[in-house]
Specification:
Blueprint (H helix, E strand, L loop, with lengths): L2 H13 L7 H40 L23 H22 L8 H10 L8 H14 L7 H18 L4 H19 L3 H10 L12 H19 L18 H31 L7 H20 L12 H8 L5 H20 L7 H22 L8 H16 L2 H12 L5 H14 L20 H10 L17 E2 L4 H8 L6 E5 L5 E6 L4 H4 L27 H10 L4 E5 L7 E6 H21 L1
Parallel strand pairs: 1-2
Antiparallel strand pairs: 2-3, 4-5
Helix pairs in contact: 1-2, 2-5, 2-6, 2-7, 2-9, 3-5, 3-11, 4-6, 4-7, 5-6, 6-7, 7-8, 7-9, 8-9, 8-16, 10-13, 10-14, 10-15, 10-17, 11-13, 12-14, 13-14, 14-15, 15-16, 15-17, 16-17
Amino acid sequence: MSFLARVKNSYYALTGKDSSANIALASKWVFNFILIGIIAGAGSIVFHLLCQLGMHYFMDLIAGHRPGSPAGEHHLFALTDTPLAPLLLLILPALGGILSGWLVYTFAPEAEGHGTDAAIDAYHNKGGFVRGRVPIIKTIASAITLTTGGSGGREGPIAQIGAGFGSFLATKLKLSDRERRIMMAAGIGAGVGSIFRAPLAGALFAAEVLYRDPEFESDVIIPTGISSVVAYCLFCLVFGWGSLFEAPDFKFTNPLELWPYIVLAIVLVATGFLYVKAFYGVTKIFKSLNIPNFLKPAIGGLCTGIIGFSLYKLLNSNNGWGVLSFGYGIVQQALFDELAISVLFAIAIGKILTTSFSIGSGGSGGVFGPSVVIGGAMGGVVGKIYHNFLPGLVTQPGAFVIVGMAGFFTAVSNTPISTIIFVSEMTNSYHLLLPSLLVCSLCYLMSTKWTIYKKQVRRKIDSPAHAGVFLLDVLQTIKVKDIIDIVEKDIHKISHTLNFQDFKHFFSGTKQHYFPVMNKEDKLVGVFTSTDIRGVLFKPEIEHLVIMQDLCTSEIIVTTPEEDLSTVLNKFTQKNIDSLPVVQEDDNGILIGMLSRRALNQYYNEQIKRMKKVNGAT
């Protein structure tokens, strides 16, 4: 199948139009996804430039700190010879916090925190709508937070930036909520895939991060893939090609090494639990503080600076400052086994605390970047311990750094598949897929009760974005014959020749509202409601002249046992009726009973509850 044919089919799946639709419309959609990729890629470029600029002026020129960087990134500005000023570096995160806090809480409060949660919430609950100013404010605030020493990553800001661009474009094009959600997700994947140099992972991440259970938003994978490729190419054209980290050519060749990896998974789950609890514990404390919101990131920044300063003194090394800002240089060193166990452990715990204070206080930054550092450091700890005691079994402790990065983020985000691809693309290391799959699977299974992304819903059935889809899907699989027990059979049938005066005496003693009218062969010939008789009820002078056949509707809307409930519901809404006659398939004159809309709605609600209970149990 040609590329254009695949694009055309993707367009049909997106819009629901049949195959006779003009391929020009599909090309228009592809153009939209390419445009999102260009804008998201440009956003990644601007954000990266701002981060480089901030690191140069704040960290290097002012504080004299020049943190290491991953091998795939290079300093865009010449390093200065400013001597390290530890006390200045201690307070710099607080200054950045107050500046970014004022910016966020003045112009776009929804830009606080790690960003990805806001994008997930917009997808599920806001029809994919993101205010146009959010990407701009998020870009500037995140760059300030991260380059003044605040601990965070780039995935949250760039996810919200890309989401904002996708949402803005869809809104300007006056697209539906479903189409806006898809374009918003394409922006997320394009932004994340480009800035981390992982286009495939970016596309999968945008489809996977929306749910806590192992589900993918299949509608967004193709659009996000197109946007992510475009954004990645644009970003790499400016900053160069290649992976974010450089790693030795690790290989997995010994099945016995899986036992240490199982231990690694347990350690990562415990660390992930600590991370999530610390992050939201700190968040809760800061939300309870009765002070202006824009001051809270400054307090969080001060706590971050104190932790960095303490580790600097404790370790007697500049590596202690690795808990500030991005910290990717620590991972790069760990991959080549250049750090001691004590340093790696201190960095992992310190990074949990600094990220909690920097972002949990309302600062702007992501949680994926810190997770890479924390997981890599803890992986290095486990790998080096095994290497020291069992060097014949674990020959390359750096391999545990890579697997630790993947397993840890899986443990806190419930995104095992995209995370495996993420780490493989970021390190250009694909020979560790087997241990990564094992560790990520174990981490996911052991950590389903918590997540760093609070706005994730468990399943599609729990998402308001899919409420109508599941209603249709559930009802289409059930036929009237499957719910025949809720069809009311004990109903009063009215003879077509019955005089209205006689009916009035009967009507006064019944609560029935819909009345089937039968002929002398006991065949259904019409239906009338309590509303239909009002015109005669209040005109006693004509009551003796009217028979019930005169009042009934002969154009009857009926259903049969073989009809699905989606069709039945559509019939209910056609003429806003509340009850339908159920008749035999081969003879619409033979009445089986009456099906009420209320009974159908109650049955549907019970089915949804049952499905949620079953899915929750599994």
